[in-house]
Design a protein that fits this description.
135 residues, Rossmann fold, two-stranded parallel sheet, 8 helices, 47% helix, ATP-binding, Replicative helicase loader DnaC, ATP binding, IstB_ATP-bd
């Protein structure tokens, strides 16, 4: 049930992750430590950085899938979809409800492709309502 609610685009696991590439081998212990999901209990954020094609989305989904298997509520979304949803509900006056149910309720929120699109000032305010621009 939680798997469907998480909205993964596909099921990816740690077992399927290919560590044979040189840049992946050097991070193997760090990647395997994510499998414990201890970062969730510590309320820590995880940011996966790297060029296209290195497996960031695979690892994010694998973490999410492990969390679902552990009974943890997860939501997977792309940055573009999240921004579109939040800006739409803000115009409709349903921002707080949607933010609480769709963004804050899951114990693990995975936002993919966050570096692929620029944030407009309106979108930044929708995502970070307390954020103020400073010069």
């Amino acid at each position: 049930m939680y798997t469907r609610m998480a909205a993964f685009p596909a099921v990816k696991t740690f077992e399927e992750y290919d560590f044979t590439l040189r840049h992946r081998v050097s991070h193997r212990s760090k990647i395997q430590s994510l499998r414990s999901l201890s970062f969730i209990e510590r309320n820590e954020n995880i940011v996966l950085l790297g060029p296209s094609g290195v497996g960031k989305t695979h690892l994010a989904i694998a973490m999410g899938y492990e969390a679902v298997r552990a009974g943890i509520k997860v939501r997977f979304t792309t940055a573009a979809d999240l921004l579109l949803q939040l800006s739409t509900v803000q115009r409709q006056g349903r921002y707080k409800t949607t933010l609480h149910r769709g963004v804050m309720a899951p114990k693990l929120l995975i936002i993919d492709e966050i570096g692929y699109l620029p944030f407009s000032q309106e979108e930044a305010k929708a995502v970070l309502p307390g954020h103020r621009q400073t010069l």
